[in-house]
Amino acid sequence: MAGLQPRRDEGNEPTKKPSTEKPEMSKLSPLAPTSQQAKLWAKYYRTAIAAGSSSILSTFVAYPLDSIKTRMQAYRFQHFTSCVQHTYKTEGLKGFWRGSLAPLASVTVVRTISFSIYQKAKYKFSSVIGQATGGDEPLVVVNRPGSTPTLGTVTCFAAAGATTGAIITAIACEKE
Question: Which of 56, 64, 116, 122 could bond to 160 as cystine, CB 3.0-4.6 Å?
Fold first, then answer.
């Protein structure tokens, strides 16, 4: 045992023990990002954030009307108000949102994917049209103050919408 030497690296320096200092949690965990990281993340995913949050809000707000419409069709209420009163008396306020979780999740996912596909397709078609025509890309043209629609801008947005529709049809077809 007396002949054991400390392990040395190529530089003949003794190897250092791992540091016992704790690094900042924000560097370790994506659940606690720094302010700058959060801003970059939000900017990169702004389309998905906007689509998801607007979808959740619109579905949550509109669901009671859809619920009442469905109940009126299924149970043959004479008036809208009688259906609302019956639902409130029998189930309370929760009754207007009963069963909303599945549509809330599925509609939010489909809309978020749809907006994200449209955004990516719009930039891709703008680039392709700009290269094909040798002029400005349609997104550059449309963002100029006082600009009017051109064949390039209309083509770009129509192609992006058609691409999105074709892809979303395959996704939404499963739930319809």
Answer: 122
Q: Return the amino acid letter for 170.
A: A
Instruction: Encode burial over 115-149: b for 16+ CB neighbours within 10 A, e otherwise.
Output: bbbbbebbeebbeebbeeeeeebbbebbeeeeeee
Residues making up the chain, counted from first to last? 176
User: Alpha-carbon distance 116 to 169, whole Å?
Assistant: 15
14: three-class secondary structure by DSSP: strand
pTM: 0.67
Q: pLDDT tens for residues 78-128? A: 899 999 999 999 999 999 999 999 989 988 998 999 999 999 999 999 999
Do 112 and 164 form a contact (C-beta atoms < 8 A)?
Answer: no
**Pairwise CA distance, residues 38 & 75, whole Å:** 49
